[in-house]
Write a structure and sequence with these properties.
243 residues; alpha/beta; Spore Coat Polysaccharide Biosynthesis Protein SpsA, Chain A; 7-stranded mixed sheet; 7 strands; 37% helix
Length: 243
């Protein structure tokens, strides 16, 4: 039996060399899960860590109710970790949060009230605690993405999101496309998304895995991949069936 089927909401938390952050993650989820407005659990997806993160995750999941993990044989990237989480959960709602805790689990409560009316609810970071150069890269990349995709999203880089699992399973995720979730949701007929302002916090442990190439250059290239996909997206609705 898939343990996540016992819950209404499974939070995917990708992990890549975040050993120093795992104690804080454990503390944060131990506080949030029992207090969540939906029956909630967390699924850590270890993306081929080499710093002992997986061994620590096993200990953490072994001593906490509602904590689960899966691990890759080798590093596959953030989009692959999110996709694997979506593929392996059985709750009707799926959340996503980064392991750096620059967004916090309790702020899912700002998003969850809207998920009944939308297929995706995503945070928009307020009071950014990043450097000026990171904020500039993010602002430029978001503006270029909006021009190319017409998704209207203010901050697709915010690592706090809730999706309906049925919608998430239909997303054509591939490497780098975690930055395009609102645009990908809009490819589905009659699908909508909502944005909610959420607090942003400084990273206090571990190191960022993002740099100029994967924060700015690669997303710009991916915009052209999305435009190619948008013209070829498949949409259909079943009218009748005797299955």
């Amino acid at each position: 039996m898939n343990h996540t089927s016992e819950y209404d909401f499974t939070i995917i938390c990708p992990i890549y060399n975040e050993r120093d952050n795992i104690p804080r993650l454990e503390e944060s989820f131990r506080r949030y899960l029992p207090a969540a407005s939906r029956r909630a659990c967390v699924l850590f997806v270890d993306d081929g860590s080499t710093d002992g993160s997986l061994d620590l995750l096993k200990l953490v999941c072994g001593r906490n109710r509602g904590f689960y993990y899966l691990s890759f044989v080798r590093n596959a990237g953030l989009s692959a970790a999110i996709k694997a989480g979506i593929d392996h959960i059985a709750s009707p709602l799926v959340g996503y949060i980064d392991a750096d805790l620059q967004t916090r689990p309790e702020d899912f409560e700002l998003l969850l009230p809207l998920i009944s009316d939308h297929q995706l609810v995503t945070g928009v970071r307020t009071g950014r605690k990043d450097t000026f150069f990171k904020r500039f890269q993010s602002k430029f990349a978001n503006a270029f993405r909006r021009m190319m995709t017409h998704d209207g999203a203010a901050d697709t880089g915010c690592p706090l999101k809730v999706l309906q699992l049925e919608t998430a399973r239909r997303l054509p995720l591939f490497k780098g496309m975690h930055r395009f979730l609102p645009a990908l949701v809009l490819l589905q007929e009659e699908a909508t998304y909502a944005e909610v302002p959420v607090p942003h916090y400084p990273r206090t442990a571990g190191q960022s895995k993002f740099h100029l190439w994967n924060r700015l250059v690669s997303p710009l290239v991916d915009c052209f991949a999305y435009r190619w996909m948008r013209k070829r997206a498949i949409n259909y609705r079943i009218g009748q069936s005797d299955l």
